[in-house]
Design a protein that fits this description.
By secondary structure, the protein is an alpha+beta fold. Helices cover 23% and strands 12% of the residues.
Length: 98
């Protein structure tokens, strides 16, 4: 048993160290279900943005479907389809344009 101890410790240390190494493979960008937000901050039934297509945060930032200069959310992204209407903030909101 003593002669295997050093080998087992090496395997355990390697396995533990590899758990904290960042992968070189780029993960795909998260995509969201986007919905328009009304003036009261609510997302209502039938308010899908981008024609209901799944888009990522970068696309929403580059193609804002709302007027510029707004001081509130105009669209919100959800990872899964929410139960509408909702006041939930979702997981993504595009950058506001000045």
């Amino acid at each position: 048993m003593k002669k295997y101890f050093l080998g087992m410790m090496a395997v355990i240390l390697l396995a533990g160290a590899s758990a904290f190494v960042k992968s070189n493979i780029d993960s795909p960008a998260a995509v969201y279900h986007w919905y328009y937000v009304d003036a009261a901050g609510s997302v209502n039934v039938g308010s899908e943005a981008f024609g209901g297509q799944l888009k990522d945060q970068a696309y929403a930032n580059a193609h804002p479907p709302c007027a510029t200069g707004l001081n509130a959310d105009c669209i919100r992204g959800f990872e899964s389809i929410p139960s509408l209407p909702t006041m939930a903030t979702g997981e993504a909101t595009p950058l506001r344009k000045p």
